[in-house]
Model the fold of this input.
Amino acid sequence: MSRFFSSKYKALTPYTPGEQPQDMKYIKLNTNESPYPTSEKAQRAAAEAAKKAQLYPDPECRELTEKLADMCGLSFENILVTNGSDEILNFAFMAFCDESCPAVFPDITYGFYPVYATLNNVPYTEIPLREDFTIDTSEYYNKKSTIFIANPNAPTGIALSLSEIEEIVRQNPDNVVVIDEAYVDFGAESALSLIPKYDNLLVIQTFSKSRSMAGARLGFGAASRELIADLNTVKFSTNPYNINRMTMAAGIGVLEDEEYTRNNCRRIQKTRAYTVSELKNMGFESTDSLANFIFVRHPKRDGEGLYRELKARGILVRHFSKPRLSDWLRITIGSREEMESLIKTLREMLGGN
Done:
């Protein structure tokens, strides 16, 4: 840290992304990327858009926004497209949180929430998950705060039902409830259908996971016109050209190839079920994940030890040092072949058990 670094950021601990080592070729099961390539239609659209890269992109992302609105059953004014879902999360902390309206989120969830709170000088409260890693929804009633819930949650993969989400929104009529649906397409139920009913609900999704666009950085939020107007005020006060031409074109291409996305989601769900079954046969315990990853532990093996040995054998998974999580591993669902390699390697490590 230099002597010029602002004192307001001295307490800031940055988010730690999944490691991307370059020392050898790994089976990468640590960052929840899709094992399948971006839609060919999207790739062609991005390549065509690159021919006009000398021109600024549309700051309203009108064509992409209209397609998203149609997909969500909403209007243009109900959608904001952003540079990954992380950007709109930051916008939400900026727009809807302050000293008089703190943030609330689970103590085990997406690691960026406390980072954004600290970055924006927002007081926050972390509500502990139950022992089984589930959310006690009653703990989120009448909080007089802006609520952030990842559904399915990360890194557990456990999802709340739509009725549980709705009750949280209903019980906080004077505060914004943000539902972060980065992994919703792998078996959970989206809260998008609730937006016409509640003016305090913001639903956030990403193109990174189910739509195979992690490297393009594209996300969006859906909410009442008034909430989207607030978020647009923040956007146009920071970076009006936040989506480049190539990403915007690729996003349109992906939405025009929806069956490709749906088919990939079905394949990942099938591979997830296969992997959980095989790991349970080896003695692993698993949460009931509805995401494109699983959260597992072995009662006789140390989590960090398993992570390090897998890495030494060319397989990356995610390990967390937080005390309640230290024996657990978050494993991305890759291709069937990648998961078979993982299972074979773990059998060897566990002595064939």
